[in-house]
Amino acid sequence: MTIREELEQREREILAPWASLSAESRGRERDEIPCDIRPAFQRDRDRILHSKSFRRLKDKTQVFLAPFGDHYRTRMTHTLEVSQNARTIAKALRLNEDLVEAIALGHDLGHTPFGHAGERALDRVCPLGFSHNVQSLRLVDVLERDGKGLNLSWEVRDGILNHQTSGSPSTLEGRIVRLSDKIAYFHHDMDDAMRAGILTEEDVPEEITSVVGKTTGERLDHFIHDLIRTSQGKPVIAMSPPVAQAMKDMRAFMHRRVYADPVAKAEEHKAERVVEVLYGYYLEHTEDLPAFLREMVVDDTSKHREVCDYISAMSDRFAIAKYEELFIPKSWSVL
Fold first, then answer.
1. Based on the domain organization, do 178 and 326 belong to the same domain?
2. CA nearest 23: which of 40, 47, 46, 45?
3. Of 49, 145, 149, 165, which is most buried by a Cβ count within 10 Å?
């Protein structure tokens, strides 16, 4: 018996009856010889962790565009916090920790430079539309490894595609990541907003603090504990009604006070303009695209698709550097 088979047997013995088992995965789009050490979902986790797309997350905006200070979140730190929350919940519920980690690490790979500002800009200028969850799946299916893709398991791909609020993941592990994503960004976005002076604890409405706590740490702890208590011993992933309502109230509060705040969003129109201008340039100069993307351009539709692929993969820093290289005279850029 290989180490992988021993680990798969351990899953059968330890995990809940409704957990996703690595040995019972619905498989990959392209058949592969199984690893002799790692079960399928652990292997997927490793592929995502070592991908170029994952490394680029460290220079992509979460909420605050180009903040001054070392402690504001980036898309990578957000991803790591989602992963940690999801693993804690999965372990407590005896669900597949490798699967939730793979989904969590891959769920935001398709995010644009400049956060949701870049996503809005690409969705506006690309006739095919743009959504980061769909792009995340496209990255792992097609674009990684210079067009070869990562060939991930069906369950990981399903969780990545369906992690948004409107999504409906097929596995309980995917549903954990879907809720962990929201728990993480409400927690850290509020924490960052307080660090930036946009919010204080006294600003948080009493209908939220009376249910889930008076500090960001208390709220994070309460959300996770409530989710585990409500879901324990059942094939569901859910919060209790009062806590689920507090999360909805927090979402509305954050949209009103942070996500639409003029201070936090002051530079976003410039970021959107950078994305739009770069899109127009590469649409007219597809010869400047990376070679493997150029090879995918066969008609007007694919031209839009590959330009969108290239720009959405850029980090904030790379997008700004490309904009300066293409449109700012060198004598200006050194003044």
1. no
2. 40
3. 149
